[in-house]
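Hello forum,

I keep getting stuck at the same step: I have a sequence, I want structure tokens, and every attempt I make locally crashes halfway through. Rather than fight my setup again tonight, could one of you with a working pipeline run this one for me? It's a single chain of 367 residues.
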Amino acid sequence: MPSPTMDLITDLNESTLPSLRKNVMMITQEYDDYPLTKYFLERGQKAFTGTREQVQCRLSNSGTAKFVGPYEVRSVSHKNLIQHYEQDACPFDDQIIISKLVNERNAGKEKIVDMLMTQMDDKFENLYNLCEEGMASAPYTHNDTQSLWGLPAMLPYLDDDVVDPIGGYNAMTTRYGDGSTSTLLPYSTIDRSLTKNRRARTMAATHGGVFDPVLNDTLRRLLTRSNFKTLTKYKVKMDQASGGDRIYTSHELVDGLESYTESAPDDWKGDSQPSKGMVAIRGIDIQRVAAFGDLTEMPIFGVRHRFFQAIVPKMENGKKRWMHINDAMQEPRNPNISYINIDNSINTVCLNFQRAGFNCHKPILSS
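Reply #2:
Ran it on my machine without issues. Output:
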């Protein structure tokens, strides 16, 4: 007859406690990484005051330059070319609840972990999940003040039933969470469907859902044709924010890219378009976005970060309203309870839709 296991020895269980790891707790999170929050919202933030952030645009040229003869008299003309669109910061928060009665018992040598810190960790994950999912999607409605202006809004998809592996500046329609669509930029009268505003459109193409030679060629064209260079004689300061080029896509497509490059000749050095000897596309850093996992469009966003900037309202004390932990406030109906609010208010503006990057995605079939 086998001897009983340790958990069946009653005397042992009644007389001995397990070894407890104090102040150590397993921490889990929804996503393996938060690249959209990290690179779009946390870096290069610009503090602003006023109602919204306004971006001035010149989306056409006057066409007044001409060749002239030695004694030709020409008329002088002027056209108003400046338009603008605006972006509003999106406020969001979460609260930590503190009970004096609970805290009194979560103390002393009997305390295993700090309950306040476990709450704090949970609340920050909630906020980061909200940011990552918001940047991976479009707002719920046009001019929505309670949604982030995510990548599918700044670099929109092509229209329904369009199949275009070649690519071009044809992306102009934003699909919103409520099912509506619009070709207008936020808080503006700039309609990207009009020929005069075609420079507000973005580069886009479609792919077949797998990383193959066709998709590789499509990405090559998109990278080449969207790489605008500023005129050397004229540069506008607001045209660029923080630099860096990155490609954002799902785990599934990056896995396909790795398989594709590993099957290539050795002199490719692990790059589908050889550059720096790593699994990449022209040496551009590829970010796996877990929040893209459920998107049937399977987007590949090529992003030039110098044309994007996070905007954050400036508080009265001069600090930015980003992950701001307020002082504890007492619940007036219960003196034993206090709240700590974690305040945020942020959004992203695109400083140049024409140069900002591209969107390569599966065709969207109309229902």
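Residues 20 and 93 are 34 Å apart (CA to CA). If your local run keeps crashing, start a new thread with the error log.
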